[in-house]
Amino acid sequence: MSLTFTKLKAEFRCINDSCGATYDLNEVVYECRKCGSLLQVSHDINALKETSGKEWRELFDSRLGSVKFPNTSGIWNKREWVLPHVQDSEIVTSGEGLSHLFHSERLTKHFGLGDLWIKQCGISHTGSFKDLGMTVLLSQVKHMLNSGTKIRAVACASSGDTSAALASYAAKAGIPAIIFLPAGKVSQAQLIQPVSNGAKVIALETDFDGCMKIVKEVTKEAGIYLANSMNSLRIEGQKTIAPEIVQQLEWNVPDWVIIPGGNLGNVSALGAGFEMAKELGLIDKLPRIVLAQAENANPLYLSYLKNFEEFSPVDAKPTLASAIQIGNPVSVQKAIRTLKKFNGIVEQASEAELSEASAKTDLFGLYNDPHTGVALAALYKLRAKGTIAKGEKVVVISTAHGLKFTEFKLKFHEGKIPGTDPKLANVIRSCKPEVGAVMDEIGKFLNSESALNLKDIL
Amino acid sequence: MSLTFTKLKAEFRCINDSCGATYDLNEVVYECRKCGSLLQVSHDINALKETSGKEWRELFDSRLGSVKFPNTSGIWNKREWVLPHVQDSEIVTSGEGLSHLFHSERLTKHFGLGDLWIKQCGISHTGSFKDLGMTVLLSQVKHMLNSGTKIRAVACASSGDTSAALASYAAKAGIPAIIFLPAGKVSQAQLIQPVSNGAKVIALETDFDGCMKIVKEVTKEAGIYLANSMNSLRIEGQKTIAPEIVQQLEWNVPDWVIIPGGNLGNVSALGAGFEMAKELGLIDKLPRIVLAQAENANPLYLSYLKNFEEFSPVDAKPTLASAIQIGNPVSVQKAIRTLKKFNGIVEQASEAELSEASAKTDLFGLYNDPHTGVALAALYKLRAKGTIAKGEKVVVISTAHGLKFTEFKLKFHEGKIPGTDPKLANVIRSCKPEVGAVMDEIGKFLNSESALNLKDIL
């Protein structure tokens, strides 16, 4: 294959279609200077269309098994769709993407589906899907530095996965990272990843919104580049989840994709990826998308109940799915647009529902974080309602590794999450170190409901 | 390619060459019934040799990009070398293997090497390299069940990565798992993975050796299959690390491979993989191997100092590298044989050395567990001595994800590990939420040694 891509280019474009202002990707700009809306990265779709769907599929398939840099990244093996101008020497990668599509016949049968896959975005360098966006952001920063833009550091406000991914990729790039967080509300344990990766972590005597305000001020003036999700570069990385899924399914499209959402950048990214794959002829239809919210932080669910005719922020209450505890999502307009295009649904999950969904599916060998629990709870509920029909094919996006949520798992199995089924809590049993006593204990287990639930072939 | 592999077969063989007893892989046997030695899986090497090295390379390369089951596993895409008789329907996989070879030009330069790669075996389904062996063990159990062997459960004694991997893969297979651990010495937090995956976790009122004794007794009689590392099936999975590394390096062989070791099964597996690749003509030389031990649990290091002429178990002292706190390693004879064949070296690392090595390399974007810290400390020491020469090419095996070791990271950055350089500890700074005060703080950081250490292109 000898495709040439010299004509490809991308730019920032205002998401407000009636404005439509555009900006060079090398500009330091996060919101439209004309109308204040968010920006998105816009590709020259006509230039991309000079390559046929079949050629794109063959190109991407040829790179999937390649051990050559940068094809060992699931972002940069689709680089023409991401940032076509970035040079090899500018790419900051830790092998993100290419995550496994977990499949279990027993789990598929448990849900009464035709097929169920869990897209394991959390089995990654820093343990969450945030790596997908950060490789793009840091690579573009390196490109800007090479182009003469003065950037002294990258910064974000976050106490979770975003700060972990930013600090790791910044360290890989050799670029200082600065993390802002509300003092007294976040422990060192929550921040030990960015602390380990050498980021400057600053605790501000304010709340999270106060931190966002400061990071926006600081990044306006000081050669410090903003890495929060309002920077749409990150979407370009997360977008690749969609073509990667259909590629792993031999270019077949599932009936449904379920994704948890708080700030709602990720569902927009997922939609953008599928739309691009369809527009460029790699697939011939779109899946339906389910956006799953925690009931304690459900502004989009409430809007969905009114057919998206209005949207009101809510005061988000604490939820075990802490990363999506957001009452006023920054990407809500993008998300609503996506859900309308994808004949989408919004579902919600209570604390008990998300915890039980996570615990039940762990019994099939998964190890789910609470956000994936929200998505799986939505699947249980939509199957019960019949919205997702028997025999359909579903992909659930898992956003983080359960290893980041030991406390959540402990709390569940210690029976400390109200409203959950105590039979699902697994406990450690004590026993004398004698073969007879041990065999008694084993016998009880093997004849118990919990062991029978596990068994399928014995 | 139309290779046929109907003749391939494998069996258990006693590692004691003067005994040489063999057993069918479907037999429930862990130690030689004639002489009591450990067993190894022995392949019909002549049958394997009917396929040339070039054909093997092409076959394996053709599978690397394949999305078809079971090639999405780094074990089963090399199935002829692992368990050739296992059928598709018997394979229990969660997408293990295929882990990224992390590469950083800055880190390579930091060590003064020609190339340095970190093989990220810990970025995996359960967060450690143990997945590689457990997929093989559970698949063989399913094969045995299909062949009529009566197995009611799988069991191991372990409080760490082994129990997590066993419970997860057993749950995936639908086979009950039983975990034994010493009561009062292990917290639920350490066991929350197997607890979540529905294993029966039994706390015995004894020490770890007492647990091993019970599990060996129980698995002798009761249709309960032993999954501890003396079961050599696990080695067959771990063995694939070696061909996978050289495949990722386009079938080039690094000068050195460094691996941490406690019970010493893993270094034997690594050696077996390289030997098989050489014997079958995929590579034309072997790397040198460094086995890295914690100074607090260093019996093989002490033996190495005496040219392996004698070996004495030690009382292992507590080490941050808790998984290799083993004074009397079960696979010591296999390991010594491997190190002799590979012109190997044993190096040791103190608690301060392993902690500093981990912390320093985290500043390049890694997030190392303490065992990888032991391996990296060995690299620092061997570079300082000149044993590993400037410009050489090195692969370090990372065995677990840092997310499993939050306490270790916290302890380091809180300055609680004696003898470590306080300048390496990163702390969270408090600040008023005012742009001026924040900019002062940022300015101090950007001009500080810690930020300068990160920078390479600004």
Automatic annotation (TrEMBL), chains A, B:
Modified residues (N6-(pyridoxal phosphate)lysine): K130
Gene Ontology biological-process entries: threonine biosynthetic process
Tagged with keyword Transmembrane helix: no
Gene assigned in the entry: thrC
Family classification: Belongs to the threonine synthase family.
One Gene Ontology term of the molecular function aspect: threonine synthase activity
One Pfam family from the record: PALP
Domain Tryptophan synthase beta chain-like PALP, residue spans: 93-399
Name used for this protein in its record: Threonine synthase
The protein's required cofactors: pyridoxal 5'-phosphate
Organism: Leptospira semungkisensis
Main EC class the enzyme belongs to: lyase
Keywords of the record: Lyase, Pyridoxal phosphate
Entries under InterPro entries matching the protein: Cys_Synth/Cystath_Beta-Synth, Thr_synthase-like, TrpB-like_PALP, TrpB-like_PALP_sf
